[in-house]
């Protein structure tokens, strides 16, 4: 059994276009859904409207949905049609003519001819009954009604209530809120300003310098002129990830209305969002550029990054890699490196629990046992880094610089400047000595006042380590490397950076509950050239990516935890939400630690 489906369309010139196709099926489905055998794109037709069956030479038509169909001018829900006689079905604006193609025992398939019904005298479209417009006022009437509503609600009501509001009595100032009244200016406000700009709530022109024009970068920089860019503007534009077509179209529209393009201040810093602080940048914000930055900035010297726990380059601290180096350099911890600080300092000897250093520390007041890290390394006032180790306060308890005795006590060699040291060495032995009283006098020319008289005292000249301070084996050689400059005995200058990680933020106070040896392998370091910094893998023992689940031992770590956008080495303000992390979410971080971190950046 087969059906011949014939579709007749009429062009604007009145010419008919006939398309035929055959469907080998015992039944047909007709409706607006595309999966029907006959698809009618007409709102007056249901998704599945009718089913046509051919059984025993007879055609039966059944309404599948809730609406019936037209048959020979009548609306019915089912019908039986003789193919030899035929019949015409009306569905929406379409007419379906059902008939046998030919008579006789070898009659062909049943044809279903589809064409649009001729327009009736009435101009009412068949679809009009299904359109929302039939139940609504005209567009003109709705436009006038909306305009009147705007006039009343946004102009008349605010003006009237502002003028007639009660401002009498205590605490009843003109800006005091009142029930059932509308404040004048706030009616058109986009929302409250942020905490940083809240004092400007009555000074809109401070930011909106030009009426009906978006806030410009030049206006922001009037107050924030000291704020550095993340990178030069052309580099930022080149390094940005491609903008999707939809977003690019939105920016194009915004720019025609005066808004500056991507990378402007207002593209990141949104105002009128309420009394909140600027939130830390999300991981996606940083990863948009840094995930594949080397593909756009081919001259960059750093690696791609999009997540600390998954994709982050090895740390590259800044330090001195050669003696007498003018400037420190950045070197990856993946390389075999040595720090040439100019010092000779074996950490393992100083931190051993036994041996001469430990015995000396036990015998001296103020140590109460072998040396530990805190005996030499003291936190700075902000508890972020450490103060420089000073000879006079940290070393001289064991490495004495006493050079002699004078009337007021002992004399010491000055430390820190070789010229001062040379002057002190030149004056050794010139200080007055105490007379030696032995109970007998020396005879002849050796008597006091004679040609070869000598005032016997402490044999300073015999203190070879002092006299040869700048030479190998001298007292300076305990810690410094001897050299010669312009033929004169000298020392290799000490070059120690104030901060090793200069492109990221790290606070020792946040890790105060950890042992120093967990990150710095000082107890096994046998040479001053060892760079005792933790690498990326050791930090990942606790710090994982931003999407990690916080536990007692795991800290979810976003880019903003160590890096800022405008201030990369100081990313956190004092009351930033990231500093309010609970102790359970950060290993070893107590409530006191969080408080000390918050104190680092006081307004």
Q: Summarize the amount of helix as a percent range.
A: 10-25%
- How would the global form be characterised? elongated
Order of strands across the main sheet: 2-1-12-11-10-7-8
Using only C-alpha atoms, the radius of gyration works out to 46 Å
CATH class of one domain: Mainly Beta
Which residues sit in consecutive blocks of at least 5 with pLDDT less than 50?
Answer: 450-462, 574-603
Q: CATH topology of one domain, anyone? A: Tumour Suppressor Smad4
Average pLDDT value? 79
Reported for the largest beta sheet, the result is: 7 strands, mixed
What share of residues are in beta strands?
5-15%
Count of helices?
14
Q: Decide which structural class fits the backbone.
A: alpha+beta
Tell me what the CATH architecture of one domain is. Sandwich
What does this structure look like?
18% of the residues lie in helices and 15% in strands. With 603 residues, it is of the alpha+beta class. Among the domains are: 3-118, Tumour Suppressor Smad4, CATH 2.60.200; 402-478, no CATH class. A hairpin with a 2-residue loop joins strand 5 and strand 6 (58-63). The two termini are 87 Å apart.
């Amino acid at each position: 059994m087969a059906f011949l489906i014939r579709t007749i369309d009429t062009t604007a010139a009145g010419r008919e276009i006939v398309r035929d196709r055959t469907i080998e099926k015992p039944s047909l489905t007709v409706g607006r859904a595309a999966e029907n055998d006959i698809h009618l794109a007409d709102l007056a037709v249901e998704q599945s409207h009718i089913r046509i069956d051919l059984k025993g030479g007879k055609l039966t038509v059944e309404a599948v949905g809730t609406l019936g169909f037209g048959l020979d001018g009548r609306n019915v829900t089912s019908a039986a049609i003789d193919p030899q006689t035929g019949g015409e079905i009306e569905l929406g604006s379409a007419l379906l003519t059902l008939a046998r193609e030919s008579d006789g025992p070898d009659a062909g398939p049943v044809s279903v001819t589809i064409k649009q019904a001729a327009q009736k005298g009435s101009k009412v479209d068949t679809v009009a009954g299904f359109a929302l417009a039939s139940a609504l006022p005209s567009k003109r009437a709705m436009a006038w009604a909306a305009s009147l509503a705007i006039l009343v609600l946004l102009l008349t009501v605010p003006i009237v209530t502002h003028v007639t509001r009660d401002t009498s009595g205590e605490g009843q100032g003109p800006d005091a809120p009142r029930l059932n009244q509308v404040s004048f200016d706030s009616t058109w406000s986009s929302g409250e300003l942020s905490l940083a700009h809240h004092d400007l709530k009555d000074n809109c022109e401070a930011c909106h310098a030009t009426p009906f024009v978006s806030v410009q970068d030049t206006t922001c920089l009037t107050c924030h002129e000291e704020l550095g860019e993340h990178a030069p503007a052309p580099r930022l534009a080149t390094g940005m990830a491609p903008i999707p077509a939809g977003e690019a179209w939105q920016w194009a529209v915004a720019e025609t209305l005066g808004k500056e393009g991507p990378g402007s201040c207002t593209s990141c810093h949104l105002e009128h969002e309420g009394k909140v602080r600027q939130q830390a940048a999300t991981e996606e914000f940083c990863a948009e550029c840094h995930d594949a930055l080397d593909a756009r900035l081919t001259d960059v010297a750093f690696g791609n990054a999009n997540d600390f726990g998954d994709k982050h380059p090895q740390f590259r601290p800044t330090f001195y890699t050669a003696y007498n180096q003018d400037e420190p350099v950045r070197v990856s911890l993946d390389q075999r490196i040595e720090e040439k600080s100019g010092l000779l300092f074996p950490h393992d000897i100083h931190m051993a629990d036994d041996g001469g250093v430990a015995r000396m520390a036990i015998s001296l007041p103020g140590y109460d046992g072998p040396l530990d890290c805190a005996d030499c390394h003291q936190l700075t006032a902000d508890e972020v880094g450490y103060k420089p180790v000073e000879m006079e306060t940290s070393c001289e308890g064991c490495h004495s610089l006493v050079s002699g005795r004078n009337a007021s006590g002992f004399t010491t060699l000055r430390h820190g400047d070789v010229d001062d040291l040379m002057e002190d060495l030149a004056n050794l032995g010139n200080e007055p000595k105490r007379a030696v009283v032995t109970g007998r006098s020396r005879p002849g020319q050796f008597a006091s006042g004679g040609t070869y008289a000598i005032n016997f005292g402490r044999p300073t000249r015999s203190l070879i380590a002092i006299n040869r301070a700048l030479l190998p084996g001298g007292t300076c050689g305990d810690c410094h490397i001897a050299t010669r400059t312009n033929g004169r005995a000298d020392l290799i200058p000490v070059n120690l950076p104030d901060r090793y990680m200069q492109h990221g933020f790290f606070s020792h106070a946040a890790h105060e509950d950890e042992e120093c040896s967990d990150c710095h392998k000082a107890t096994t370091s046998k040479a001053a050239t060892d760079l005792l910094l933790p690498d990326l893998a050791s930090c990942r023992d606790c710090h994982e990516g931003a999407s990690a689940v916080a536990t007692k031992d795991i800290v979810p770590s976003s880019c903003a935890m160590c890096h800022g956008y405008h201030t990369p080495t100081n990313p956190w303000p004092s009351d930033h939400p990231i500093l309010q992390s609970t102790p359970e979410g950060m290993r070893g971080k107590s409530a006191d630690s969080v408080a000390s971190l918050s104190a680092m950046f006081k307004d």
